Amino acid sequence: PETGCLSIVVLGASGDLAKKKTFPALYHLFLQGFLPSEEVHIFGYARTKISDDELRNRIRGYLITDKSASTEHLDNVTKFLELVKYVSGSYDSEEGFQLLDKEIAKHELSKNSVEGSSRRLFYLALPPSVYPSVCKMIRHNCMNKSDLGGWTRIVVEKPFGKDLESAEQLSSQIGQLFDEPQIYRIDHYLGKELVQNLLVLRFANRFFLPLWNRDNIDNVQIVFREDFGTEGRGGYFDEYGIIRDIIQNHLLQVLCLVAMEKPVSLKPEHIRDEKVKVLQSVLPIKDEEVVLGQYEAYRDDPTVPDHSNTPTFATVVLRIHNERWEGVPFILKAGKALNSRKAEIRVQFKDVPGDIFKCMASDLQNSGKKQGRNEFVIRLQPSEAMYMKLTVKQPGLEMLTVQSELDLSYRQRYQGVTIPEAYERLILDTIRGDQQHFVRRDELKAAWEIFTPLLHRIDDGEKKPLPYKPGSRGPEAADELLAKAGYVQTHGY
Ligand code: BG6
């Protein structure tokens, strides 16, 4: 790995993302030795005029939330904060960025033990409306000093636009200033342990190779549930809605990894080539395969307009038109203010042909119902796990069957292993220059192409959300759509 002077600039240093995700992730990387103090400096940049110490104190508050924090933790936070400096300036002023450049250069000169390197990472923890101007300012004022070598990279977060056209516009504005290998578009779902595991699971296990197709799989569900509402983010959320907030990015990225063909190698470009092909094979969404919902009380949020039509829940069926998946519905479902917090993938297999055990399930006897289906579940969170639902003989004298599970629960199997936070891993990837878990420009375009027509119908008020009770499963129509798509509720689940 490259060594040398590394400057990490967090733009939007006093915002919500920086506070909840970026600084804690940097702190954890520091703790694990990935940000050695002889090489690294962290700069916070924002409009507010505060001192270095004020920023440090704020960050301290994000990192020490527990009153009974150990002295070791307190000491570590202090050591980490010694790496942090603050520069204030606006997002479109040359002076601010010139000052920032000067500070970075000073740091690069002072680290004489790692002479000759200028690695600069700009993390835009900002709303996308300022991306073009910030990128321009960085490009004009803050690039790494080429005589010292190194690199300049920028990290950007969703929402990358609101539809195909605005996303493409944003991409081309940024694309005129930076080359694709310098741009890291974060989708934090790609940093989750079990999402990263999908590639290994699918392509390193003989079990799955012959089964992973339309001959064996009946339907796939990718589900995101949250048991809280917009919680102070109503203003942002109402402009975007659940499809842009969760489905078009996080769930679609997961779908790519579940559905893609085997890449030629693990090179980021090979992986992303396959993901793009999946996205380009998705057929236009049918109106009758969409259910939208909005939880009652959503509009009570003072930041949400009284007549908002924004969905806080959606179930959308996607169909992939290729040899492997023709006829297999991929059901993407996401909702806020539901009955639980969970994200999972459910791969449901077809019924066993010529089933000789019909009605022998211990709890189904004489009911005329079928055996439960095999189902492979990957729970991304909480409590990461993978389990396979299968039918076994119920232990005992009678020849009865029962649904059981082969269960790999991470907490049990990997006791004592800390699963890294998604942001931690992704920031480390940006430092290492690995773009595998980042969204490429053509991927982003293909993702917007899928959802833009539906989003426009919603924005125009042609498609309206159904009300649902907070704390429920969402609108009943969503369960009906699920059943129509072929999902069979597994017995005992
Ligand atoms: C974000 C969304 O991208 O993901 C939020 O903007 C959502 O609305 C969050 O709450 C969920 O992330 P996680 O990692 O908690 O599933």
From TrEMBL:
It catalyses: D-glucose 6-phosphate + NADP(+) = 6-phospho-D-glucono-1,5-lactone + NADPH + H(+). Keywords: Carbohydrate metabolism, Glucose metabolism, NADP, Oxidoreductase. Residues 9-197 form the Glucose-6-phosphate dehydrogenase NAD-binding domain. Pathway: Carbohydrate degradation; pentose phosphate pathway; D-ribulose 5-phosphate from D-glucose 6-phosphate (oxidative stage): step 1/3. Its EC number is 1.1.1.49. GO terms for cellular component: cytosol. Residues 199-487 form the Glucose-6-phosphate dehydrogenase C-terminal domain. The keyword NADP applies. GO terms for biological process: glucose metabolic process; pentose-phosphate shunt, oxidative branch. GO terms for molecular function: glucose-6-phosphate dehydrogenase activity; NADP binding. It comes from the Eukaryota. Belongs to the glucose-6-phosphate dehydrogenase family. Catalyzes the rate-limiting step of the oxidative pentose-phosphate pathway, which represents a route for the dissimilation of carbohydrates besides glycolysis. This is Glucose-6-phosphate 1-dehydrogenase. It comes from Juglans regia (English walnut). The gene is LOC109010115.
